From TrEMBL:
Pfam family, one: AMP-binding
AMP-binding enzyme C-terminal domain span: 407-483
Molecular-function GO term, any one: acid-thiol ligase activity
Protein name: AMP-dependent synthetase
Domain AMP-dependent synthetase/ligase: 12-357
InterPro entries per record: AMP-bd_C (IPR025110), AMP-bd_C_sf (IPR045851), AMP-binding_CS (IPR020845), AMP-dep_synth/lig_dom (IPR000873), ANL_N_sf (IPR042099), ATP-dep_AMP-bd_enzyme (IPR050237)
PANTHER family per UniProt: LONG-CHAIN-FATTY-ACID--COA LIGASE, NONRIBOSOMAL PEPTIDE SYNTHASE PES1 (EUROFUNG)-RELATED
Top-rank taxon, per record: Bacteria
């Protein structure tokens, strides 16, 4: 089974149903029209001497044309290399060269960047040339399930970007897991407000292949998000925590009564503060789900609030950090727990990546005996869920003791004058590492001393966990997923 076969099956079942709506460009595409576009793209690729197995970098937009090309690359046996259009020309050139991509397909919003890349010797072709023209049947060669399908560049929250390899088989597994977990039925509408280049294109793909309809909004706008849910009668949508927090800041802290079609909003990619989750559960009447996964193992667990036992439905702080139960095709467990039950979360399943592109050492370090070592630390709750308590690489070794930054962060966020925090260790001759905290004030005009912060932390934490240095910043740089970019935080601190 491969992606092309899944689309053929969907066309057979839902031929004339609308699969994709792009309001900005006034485009609606049926399942039949999508498969016709695949044949068009496959023919163009062959004519351009870009054979099956070739890597094609994609610098697109959140629009139907970019999404169709992305799926057509998969369906025609090429290897997609989706790129972040927020990167610099130098960064994009590095990823394109590393991937070995034969060509860059670019959308018009990236035209100037593509021109700069072409001057560096990279072959660049507009997306429109791939997808335009009359549709005619075209033979697409058979694709083996283990054939490479995608290279996804990810840097996580620290370190150098690395390319995650996924095959047709692993993506088929991801899609199956998502359809079963969400319980998508034909006709369900999904409102997408997230960039498609990371893994969101696959989230959208699962919804389409289940017979649903996807509405592509160019970007998230907190002020219009609720009205879009209402207008499109969307049953599902997805937000990262920073988007959710921004949305809630504009809404009254009371249940919304005018979203009868809404089934669930998925929240994932990074941790959610307990008070934000509390408010979200009230505002959306519990119609939320928490995701756990990563590019290396997408959608590994799914926690739908409405299905939780009554005794743990009461508090967002109790839910924050929970991974839920594994989805149908995944296994999750804690390896090597210590006396407190804390150990590394590892994931198994057919949805795992094949490895890291051109990095065998890191692949062997991460994939062991069929399990993916996530680097996340977790502990089992009484109900059998796993709670994430930190990252192995983020553990601070200070004065002979181990400190989890997440625990310190949760404490600092209890202070009403602080809206964001990032706790980390810095080398120290006396302590080995000293605990530091970068904070963002709720009201920048309010004065706050480090002595006040220290005393507050002492009232909440053991003394060895209290940060020795506080840095007050105007903001904490975050990725598209809402994760704090540690390296960029360090740069901001160096500039103080």
């Amino acid at each position: 089974m491969n992606i092309y076969h899944l689309f053929l099956n969907a066309r057979h079942k839902y031929a004339d149903n609308i699969a994709i709506i792009d309001p900005r460009n006034h485009i609606s595409l049926t399942f039949s029209a999508i498969v016709d576009k695949f044949h068009l793209v496959a023919k163009f690729l062959d004519q351009q001497s870009i054979p099956a197995g070739s890597k094609v970098a994609l610098l697109g937009d959140t629009d139907a044309e970019s999404l169709i090309l992305d799926y057509a690359l998969m369906a025609s046996g090429r290897v997609r290399v989706p790129l972040d259009n927020a990167l610099s020309v130098r960064e994009l050139q590095s990823q394109i060269n590393d991937s070995g991509a034969m060509v860059l397909a670019y959308q018009q919003n990236c035209r100037e960047v593509a021109l700069s890349l072409s001057q560096q010797g990279i072959r660049c072709i507009p997306v429109s040339l791939f997808t335009s023209g009359p549709a005619t049947p075209y033979q697409i060669a058979d694709i083996h399930p283990q054939q490479l399908l995608s290279l996804n560049y990810t840097g996580g929250s620290t370190g150098q970007p690395k390319a995650v390899m996924h095959t047709h088989a692993s993506f088929v597994s991801v899609i199956s897991n998502m359809i079963l977990a969400r319980q998508i039925v034909p006709g369900d509408k999904f409102l997408n407000v997230r960039p498609l280049w990371p893994i969101a294109a696959v989230v959208v793909l699962a919804h389409i292949l289940a017979g649903g309809t996807v509405i592509l909004e160019q970007r998230f706008r907190a002020e219009s998000y609720i009205s879009l849910l209402q207008y499109h009668e969307a049953r599902y949508s997805s937000l990262v925590p920073t988007q959710l927090a921004r949305l809630l800041s504009l809404l009254p802290d009371q249940p919304l009564e005018d979203l009868p079609a809404l089934g669930c909003i998925d929240i994932g990619a990074s941790a959610i503060p307990g008070e934000v989750l509390d408010q979200a559960l009230r505002v959306f009447n519990g119609r939320l789900a928490l995701l756990y996964g990563m590019t290396e193992a997408p959608w590994s667990s799914y926690l739908r609030y409405a299905t939780l036992p009554v005794e743990i439905r009461q508090s967002g702080s109790e839910l924050s950090g929970l991974t839920g139960y594994p989805v149908f095709g995944a296994a999750i467990k804690i390896a090597g727990p210590d006396l407190a039950g804390i150990g590394e979360i590892i994931i198994g399943g057919m949805h795992l990546m094949a490895g890291y592109w051109r990095n065998e050492a890191l692949t062997l370090q991460t994939l062991q005996d069929g399990w993916l070592k996530t680097g996340d630390l977790g502990v089992y709750t009484e109900q059998g869920y796993i709670r994430i308590v930190g990252r192995i690489k983020e553990i601070i070794r200070s004065g002979g003791k181990s400190v989890l930054p997440a625990e310190v962060e949760q404490c600092i966020l209890l202070h009403p004058g602080i809206s964001e925090v990032h706790v980390f260790g810095q080398p120290d001759p006396e302590w080995g590492e000293k605990i530091c905290a970068a904070i963002v004030l709720s009201d920048p005009a309010t004065a706050m001393s480090t002595d006040d912060l220290t005393e507050f932390c002492k009232s909440q934490l053991s003394r060895f966990k209290v940060p020795k240095t506080f840095y007050i910043l105007d903001s904490l740089p975050r990725s598209h997923y809402g994760k704090i970019k540690s390296a960029e935080v360090m740069k901001k601190i160096e500039q103080l």
